[in-house]
Amino acid sequence: MDSKTIQMPREVHIGPNVINDTGKISKDLKLPGEPLVVTGNRTLKIGGQLVYDSLEDAGFNPEIIQIKNATPRDVESVESKLSENSFALGVGGGKVIDVAKLAATNKKSYFISIPTTASHDGIASPMASIKNSKESVSLKAQAPMALIADSEILKNAPFRFLASGCADIVSNYTAVKDWRLAKRLQNENFSESAAALSIMSAKLIIQSADSIKEGLELSSRLVAKMLFSSGMAISIAGSSRPASGSEHLFSHALDQIAKKPALHGEQCGIGTIMMMKLYGGNWKCIRDSLKRMKAPTTAEEIGIDKDEIIEALTIAHTIRPDRYTILGDRGISPDAARRLAIDTGVI
After folding, report:
1. pLDDT tens-digit series, residues 266-289
2. Contact status, residue 63 vs residue 35, Cβ threshold 8 Å
3. Vertex 16, ends 14 and 21: CA angle to 5°?
4. Cα pseudo-dihedral 69, 299, 249, 228, rounded to 10
5. β-pairing verdict for 127-132 and 135-140
6. CB atoms within 10 A of CB 73
7. What does the alpha-carbon distance between residue 35 and residue 222 come to, in Å, rounded to a whole number?
8. Which residues pair with residue 136 across a beta bridge?
9. How many other CB atoms sit within 10 Å of the CB of residue 71?
10. Integer distance in angstroms from the first to the last C-alpha of the chain?
11. Cα distance between residue 319 and residue 98, in whole Å
12. At a CB cut-off of 8 Å and minimum separation 6, what does 1 contact?
């Protein structure tokens, strides 16, 4: 019988002010060597300094490195500060966490994820998105040794990020549909447990849509928990399949062609509306749920041109040819793409 290793965080801390316990948590985990705090210019003030101080109070001699983007060069700069006898803490948004995660993986060091926004499920998954030119590449990485999600910090971030995280979770619906389709048509490996966990996360966030409110700590805590669950589905599957399908291909296509791409989760949410329509599913329920969460449902709301939406739909199937989805091998024609976007109210 084939065996498979499933990587998951050893500890998960989600709640108000848990960031102040970072030093104690790191001590309890008995991580080797000294910590490297990976953060950005803004997130240093939001959470990076708090992490540094907590580590210092616990007896560590931490070091800080600030990054600007999520490029191979940024990964290399973090790697240069790491060794097998040290560990990394990513304190920031998706770019910071992905860079720290991949750098730690490459150096065989441990990694702790400390998000300052709850905008996508990469906070706990064994995947990292790195941008090479305008193209984002999803790479396998090790799962975090621990997740420390301070719901007070997440609450204080712009609400747009929280709504984006909600939309990223909702997109699990079409991602799993695509995965099942690939199982039927391409005999792709499929995990019922990973799919069930992914759909459960999406259902719970939709059922709680009216509870997602700006400035409410309980809202940020709920979204963080669902993002964690979605990340765990990815760990169980061993790929991003449970949380990334045709709607993500559409988002990645927008990243390449749009003059000013929106947040990842925002684009995926809008993609989910259209892909659910292609499946003949209840796309109006998806749209209305996103609206209740204050997540965007139209191109205008995210500042994307109508023509960019149509072009992204037509090229989405080329983004990852190995990933079979409802878009098939030939994709969707410009006329069909326009009709789809108009019928769903996206444009």
Report:
1. 999 999 999 999 999 999 999 999
2. yes
3. 75
4. 70
5. antiparallel
6. 11
7. 29
8. 131
9. 16
10. 50
11. 20
12. none
Three-class SS string for 150-215?
EHHHHHHCCHHHHHHHHHHHHCHHHHHHHHHHHHHHHCCCCCHHHHHHHHHHHHHHHHCHHHCCCC
pLDDT digits (tens, 9 = 90+) for 71-113: 999 999 999 999 878 999 999 998 999 999 999 999 999 999 9
Q: Give the pLDDT score at 287.
A: 98
Beta strand extents in the chain (DSSP E only): 11-15, 34-39, 63-66, 86-92, 110-115, 127-132, 135-140, 146-150
Determine the pLDDT at residue 8.
Answer: 83
Give pLDDT tens digits for 166-175.
Answer: 999 999 999 9
Percent helix, strand, coil in the chain, to 5, is 55, 15, 30
Residue 201 and residue 173 in contact, taking contact as beta carbons nearer than 8 Å = no
What is the residue whose two structure tokens read 């600007």? 68
CB 245 within 8 A of CB 175: yes
User: Does 1 score more than 70 pLDDT?
Assistant: no
Q: How many CB atoms lie within 10 A of CB 115?
A: 30
